[in-house]
């Protein structure tokens, strides 16, 4: 089996409470370590009148006391860097430890390749930790290499295909290093596995916006792409949101402020027919919602009247759980009518 370090044993002990076996290495208190001789740990101050004192594990408490001492002294050293690793293993969300680690990496000019190995390991333990993903971004940006980054994200998404942090990081890596080739097929594969994945739909939108011309032809292609998924599962909200995202809505509800765009939704009359068909056949609230958006864009007395009718139908029949919302939208449409 792979050898594990004392820090990793400590991590397993505190976080998983699992036994590491009879050959477990013993944690050495900081006060007994030669490199920390003469350093006075700084206790946590909770004020003069503690109401409910948290009972920390002794190892956790001592480790954090030494971190506070290092921060107080503004120390940048190899031992401070090593301390940050121990803190991170027992408290991976500690922003201060990550800040200290980055400061040491930069000022001591430490090996970034070794840091990537550490991040690969700790990242698997904490797939949704904000600090780890941010630290990885900073290190990779300084390292200037993205050789294994997409593979690492693939591994994280294999464990949880809706990991927001992994998707956000993938977007950054692809955009920063211009690694767009083959990514559209990656998004499509995720959609084939789960067409309800908003993360995959969002990633496809990002890729289209960064790799294709913002033209009527591009939008038409995306409409057809989404329609195929809607036909398979009409009540799946994700492709409807994707469709709607290509078009902004005329006016903010209840106001007369208008937002214009390059390609209005009314340029695609077949989409209106499609929404009407799905709405009638399946009483689908998503279809009605997009149809209302089209009527709002047409912005005539008749079309706004149709939009009001949709609001009433949704509030009273199809989507009664959101009746208050649809009634509020109805009021906004009435304001638009007054502006005609």
Written overview of the protein:
By secondary structure, this protein is mostly helical. It is built from 16 helices and no strands. Helix 3 (78-90) packs antiparallel against helix 4 and helix 9 (183-193) packs antiparallel against helix 10. The longest helix is centred in the C-terminal third of the chain and has 18 residues, at 301-318. The model is unreliable at 12-24 and 251-261 (pLDDT under 50).
Main sheet: strands, sense, barrel: none
In whole angstroms, how far apart are the ends? 75 Å
Rg, Å, rounded: 28 Å
Instruction: Kindly estimate the percentage of residues that lie in beta strands according to DSSP.
Output: under 5%
Count of DSSP helices? 16
Q: Give the mean pLDDT.
A: 89
Uncertain segments: 12-24, 251-261
| Overall SS class | mainly alpha
User: What is the count of β-strands?
Assistant: 0
- Overall, the morphology is elongated
Order of helices and strands: HHHHHHHHHHHHHHHH
Helix content: 55-70%
């Amino acid at each position: 089996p792979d050898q594990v370090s004392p820090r990793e044993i400590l991590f397993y002990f505190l976080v998983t409470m699992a036994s590491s076996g009879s050959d477990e290495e013993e944690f050495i208190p900081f006060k007994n370590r030669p490199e920390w001789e003469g350093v006075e740990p700084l206790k946590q101050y909770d004020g003069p009148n503690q109401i409910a004192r948290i009972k920390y594990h002794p190892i956790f408490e001592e480790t954090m006391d030494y971190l506070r001492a290092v921060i107080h002294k503004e120390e940048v050293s190899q031992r401070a860097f090593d301390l940050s690793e121990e803190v991170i293993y027992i408290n991976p969300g500690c922003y201060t430890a990550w800040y200290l680690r980055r400061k040491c990496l930069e000022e001591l000019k430490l090996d970034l390749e070794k840091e990537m190995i550490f991040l690969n390991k700790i990242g698997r333990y904490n797939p949704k930790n904000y600090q780890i993903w941010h630290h990885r971004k900073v290190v990779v940006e300084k390292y200037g290499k993205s050789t294994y980054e997409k593979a690492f994200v693939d591994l994280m998404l294999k464990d949880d295909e809706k990991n927001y942090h992994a998707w956000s990081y993938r977007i950054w890596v692809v955009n920063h290093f211009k690694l767009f080739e083959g990514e559209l097929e990656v998004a499509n594969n995720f959609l084939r596995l789960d067409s309800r994945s908003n993360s995959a739909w969002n990633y496809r939108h990002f890729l289209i916006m960064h790799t294709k011309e913002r033209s009527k032809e591009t939008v038409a292609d995306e409409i057809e792409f989404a329609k195929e998924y809607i036909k398979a599962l009409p009540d799946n909200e994700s492709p409807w949101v994707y469709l709607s995202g290509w078009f902004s809505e005329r006016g903010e509800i209840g106001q007369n402020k208008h937002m214009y765009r390059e390609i209005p939704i009314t340029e695609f009359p077949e989409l209106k027919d499609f929404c009407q068909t799905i709405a009638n056949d399946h009483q689908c609230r998503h279809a009605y919602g997009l149809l209302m958006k089209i009527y709002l864009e047409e912005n005539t007395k008749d079309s706004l009247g149709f939009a009001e009718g949709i609001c009433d139908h949704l509030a009273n029949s199809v989507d009664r759980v959101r009746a208050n919302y649809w009634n509020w939208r109805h009021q906004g449409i009435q304001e638009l009518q007054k502006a005609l």
